[in-house]
Design brief:
The structure holds two protein chains of two kinds. Chain A is mainly β. Chain A contains no helices and eleven strands. In chain A, the strands form two sheets. In chain A, strands 2, 4, 5, 6, 9, 10 and 11 form a seven-stranded mixed β-sheet that branches. A four-stranded antiparallel β-sheet of chain A has the order 1-3-8-7, with no helix packed on it. The relative contact order of chain A is 0.31. Chain B is an all-beta fold. Chain B is built from no helices and eleven strands. Classes of the chains: A mainly beta, B mainly beta. Chain A binds chain B through residues 35, 37, 44-47, 50, 59-62, 95, 97, 100, 102-111, 113-116, and chain B through 1, 30, 32, 34, 36, 38, 42-46, 49-50, 55, 87, 89, 91-102.
């Protein structure tokens, strides 16, 4: 089955760290860019970070730059997000999404999403 | 950064109605505009990519149009399963991709 499955979410104190993982299956993971998108409770979608298929190109939202690090291991069909210096405003469901990049589009469209993992930052 | 503004933020409609949602970009994004549907507690689902291309498996009552800065998502005949929140996304340029604020479609 073609799917993405996130893990690693949980409750963490402000200033703490957490590492999210996203396991891909059913498709050639190394052929696609992958992305993290988050959604705070009751709010809209916010793009967090993207990494190209080979890992060469990496982008971050300003809100997480310097605190979060995206990476991937194509041999393990996995995507990661290392989150440091967490803040209350980072509380959200974090989704992993597959990107299809064509033509001149830098980020493409996100055609496959995981179910998400909840990160709660609270004392 | 490119800002995406959706309107309306919410709407009430009946089954069978034609529904139109608008998304405006703060600068030209050519046709690099995608639409997603999200139901409560679920992950977003891709509906339309590149402004007007229907994603495989998505019903033909969904349609997208526009280019440059102004885009539209149209549902030709609203069905019970279409009540959800819809987001546009620009995928044009750095520093990053951005989503619109969402449009919640509710039952009248």
């Amino acid at each position: 089955e073609v799917q993405l499955v996130e893990s690693g979410g949980g409750l963490v104190k402000p200033g703490g760290s957490l590492r999210l993982s996203c396991a891909a299956s059913g498709f050639t993971f190394s052929s696609y860019s992958t992305n993290w998108v988050r959604q705070a409770p009751g709010k809209g979608l916010e793009w967090v970070s993207s990494i190209s298929s080979s890992g060469t190109y990496i982008y971050y939202a300003d809100s997480v730059k310097g605190r979060f690090t995206i990476s991937r291991d194509n041999a393990k069909n996995s995507l990661y997000l290392q989150m440091n210096s967490l803040r209350a405003e980072d509380t959200a469901v974090f989704y992993c999404a597959r990107g299809v990049v064509r033509g001149g589009s830098l980020f493409g469209y996100f055609d496959l999403w995981g179910r998400g993992t909840l990160v709660t930052v609270s004392p | 950064d490119i800002q995406m503004t959706q309107s309306p933020s919410s709407l009430s409609a009946s089954v069978g109605d034609r529904v139109t949602i608008t998304c405006r970009a703060s600068q030209s994004i050519s046709s690099y505009l995608n639409w997603y549907q999200q139901k409560p507690g679920k992950a977003p689902k891709l509906l339309i990519y590149a402004a007007s291309s229907l994603q495989s498996g998505v019903p033909s009552r969904f349609g997208g149009s526009g280019s440059g800065t102004d885009f539209t998502l149209t549902i030709s005949s609203l069905q019970p399963e279409d009540f959800a929140t819809y987001y546009c996304q620009q995928s044009y340029s750095t520093p990053g991709t951005t989503f619109g604020g969402g449009t919640k479609v509710e039952i009248k």
